[in-house]
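---------- Forwarded message ----------

FYI, see the LARG2 glucuronyltransferase record below. Original note from H. follows.
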Amino acid sequence: LSCHHRNSIQQLELPQRKAALIVPAFETLHYRLTFPKSKAELLSMLDMGSLYTFRYHVWPKGHAPTDYAKWRTATVPYRVAWQPDFEPYVVVRRDCPKYDQRFVGFGWNKVSHIMELDAQEYELLVLPNAFMIHMPHAPSFDISKFRLSAGYRGCLQTLREEFHQDLSRRYGAAALKYLTAERSL
């Protein structure tokens, strides 16, 4: 983390607070990219079309709750609400809930983690001056399995259902929103 981000964490009193700091994600289709040195430079690249909001064209639900329109002009961290399939990149305290180890490979690791953080009433705070850029790369072996194997997708669905049951046992009625959201998709 940069000094700026460390200062942001200190100002937000993260060590004493249950918060997940969301780092807005962008992507490029170029294999070579001069990384923007500032938010203003990133916004210019976004407006010129050399950067895009992350996965906007294939999986917008994953990052849409970040509210990129608000981020463009934000100067202070802002809170966002959990939504189904939200899978932002986050900075959290070391003692936060760990990723559920059932979700290895491709599918639902970040989604389940954010759901667990939300169930534990973590604030989801978008950092106004932070960003990351995903660079293009060959598809992973696991995403290929996900795309090509009905068995893989079936196992993932079973694990999702088990995860929902575990949330219900741990958090009771508060976890119903996750199951309701899943069923309405």
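H. also flagged this: The radius of gyration is 17 Å.
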